[in-house]
Amino acid sequence: MTKYVEVILPGSIDKPFTYAVSDCLDVSIGTCVIVPFGKYNREQEAYVTGIVEKPEFKLKQIRKLSDDNLIPIDLMQIAVWMADKYYTTLTSCLKAILPAGIKKIKKIKEVILTEVTNVDKVELNKEQRQIVESILKNSKNSKKPILIHGVTGSGKTEVYMEIIEYCIGNGKEAIVLVPEIALTPQTVSRFKKRFGDVLGATHSRLSAGERKALWHAAKNGQIKVMIGPRSAIFTPFDNIGAIILDEEHEHTYKSEQSPKYDAREVAIKRADSHNALVIMASATPSIESYYFAKNGEYHLEVLEKRVNNTPPEINVVDMRLELMKGNTSIFSKELEVAIKNNLENNFQTILFLNRRGYSTFVSCRNCGYTLKCDNCDINFTYHKYTDSLLCHYCGKADKTPENCPVCASKYIRYFGIGTQRVENELKELFPDAEIFRADLDTTTKKNSHEKIFNEFKNTKNGILVGTQMIAKGLDFPRVTVVGIISADISLGAGDYRSAEQTFSLLTQVSGRAGRAEHKGRVFIQTYNPEHYSIVHAKDANYENFYKEEILLRKARNYPPYSHIFVILLSSEDERHLIQSIFKFNQILKFYASKRDIFEILGPAPASLSKINNRFRQKIIIKCKLEENLKNFVLFTLQKASYEIKNISVSISHNPHIVP
User: Fold this and answer.
1) Residue 343 needs a FRET pair 20 to 30 A away by CA distance; which of 77, 93, 355, 626 works?
2) In 173-254, which ranges are continuous DSSP H helix?
3) Cα–Cα dist 452/461, whole Å
4) Domain identity same for 196 and 140
5) What Cα–Cα distance (Å) separates residue 420 from each residue in 250, 384, 467?
6) Tens digits of residue pLDDT in 407-456
């Protein structure tokens, strides 16, 4: 008997098409088929999204099944849910779920599957054992998401692996999500030793072929555990027992490209269809997650002690006092002495600065003009190793002028600091030291991260300088000193999450010190030592930081007390953009006045007001009810479609970084 199905074509318009299916073809929701499409009936791949009744008009017929055969039904359901949840197209959701140009691969490449190794179980300590037992006990009665608040070095990874071992023993699979910057060879190696050839690891540095091979390996049951960044949430397992999100506070779990999904929300939705555990963990949980845990929506578990039971000694250094003493160096005297002692005693040092380059901006001391990228209206960063100015947003490079473009003076000078300058000044202070730098400039080649970290690990007393990529996922037992060069950078982000991001970064970086038997010391250099994020980071007291931050969120009506939508409009024509956004704002306020539940902020320039020759303006809308807010935004955008013609529109729900 002939069936009739709706299909969607990835890469085509977001509209389902109806086809007839002969009774010799076995199709169901998720089946990949080959259909004739368009005027010339070219063959294209499509995915079945629904079974329908026979329509009255004549239909084309599906020609055959594709080699890919099937998207698991739960992933097709996830795609449909995402399209509605994140107000986007089903085709964009399918693109996010599927590896690009996925084809049948008969042989799995050895490069991505781990070799069989001897398993190390590892004896859990009392606190870890209690957490595992509590999670497994509670999982029988409730499938609430579980939040583990565990201090840095408390052994959260060992808890994950015990839960995964339990899942595998019960014939189930597990997904482990890790922020891309924490997906280091060290991290993968620990899982490799435990799970051997049932582990797959995916990351952005894999080729398209390697990602396709992993997809099929998971779909065919050749691997049971997948570790990777947010996209690993779409691993085609059919019997998931646990989904684990390490460093759950990380903003990289929220996609900034369409579909703008949050991997935490997708994990909870996907786990629901598998009756699986969702475990989120962090030393510095996101304010929202901790709020949900405090209010009973999540189940809270706490790891209070480091495995070695010796938290690092944290010192806050007031750099204003250093200036008053005549010290104009990047390094405070305390930090300089600590590095010197480490070198003499064969211990290692990590120096963190969340800004690459040599100088953060180049300016004229005569007239004050700052050299900017004319594509983006953003300060150029000076890179000494290429002797050039570089825009970190569009990539434009330029030469440093000998004279100021405005006043023609010769007083062009470099201000601010980046990781390259830190490296250079270290070489002047400690010419015999082995110094390594890990940032976007030094890690562009494949496996360059691994090379740098391995070389550093194998030194007696090396110094590692880096950005966020050294803040987490690294465990060097001989690192006893950590220096945070400028703790104030993220406080100046102009974002409602800036205090949270600062506290989190300081806590995570501090956790790299003293992870073995040697006592660790941390030096936080700042011009704002009284700020509550720095005060509580010094005491490693998340609970007290949360109490202050949650009161501010409530007073300002920010998440978790409301939902926010950011509407970003951009155009190459600045005048047209400003006129359009003000007209759109009038429409928003007109409809908002009918229901007193919306708060509208703006319009205002985006924090990056011009990128790649496009000007950017934003409006922020707040509301306590998510569905009401989403419907209001979509409705007003439709009403304002004429006013915002020839304008690019991007909307984000609860973005982790407000544009």
Assistant:
1) 355
2) 185-195, 208-219
3) 15
4) yes
5) 25, 8, 11
6) 999 888 776 788 898 999 999 999 999 999 998 888 877 778 888 988 99
**For the sheet containing 313-318, what is the strand order?**
313-318, 521-526, 479-484, 348-352, 463-466, 435-438
Q: Which two tokens stand for residue 228?
A: 């990777």
Domain shared by 207 and 279, yes or no? yes
Residue where one domain finishes, among candidates 525, 552, 579:
552
CB 607 within 8 A of CB 593: no
Q: Which two tokens stand for residue 98?
A: 């599927």
- The whole-model pTM stands at 0.87
Residue 328: CB atoms within 10 Å:
7
Q: Residue 484 falls within a domain, yes or no?
A: yes
Tokens for 566, please give them.
């950011």
Structure-block tokens of residue 432:
């015999």
CB-CB contact of 516 with 482 (8 Å): no
Is 216 in contact with 104 (CB distance < 8 Å)?
A: yes
What are the residues whose beta carbons fall under 8 Å from the beta carbon of 492, sequence distance 6 or more? 498
SS3 of residue 428 by DSSP? helix
Q: Which CATH number goes with the domain that contains 222?
A: 3.40.50.300
Distance CA 217, CA 455 (A): 33
Give pLDDT tens digits for 554-584: 998 999 999 999 999 999 999 999 999 999 9
The first and second tokens of residue 105, run together, are 């691969």
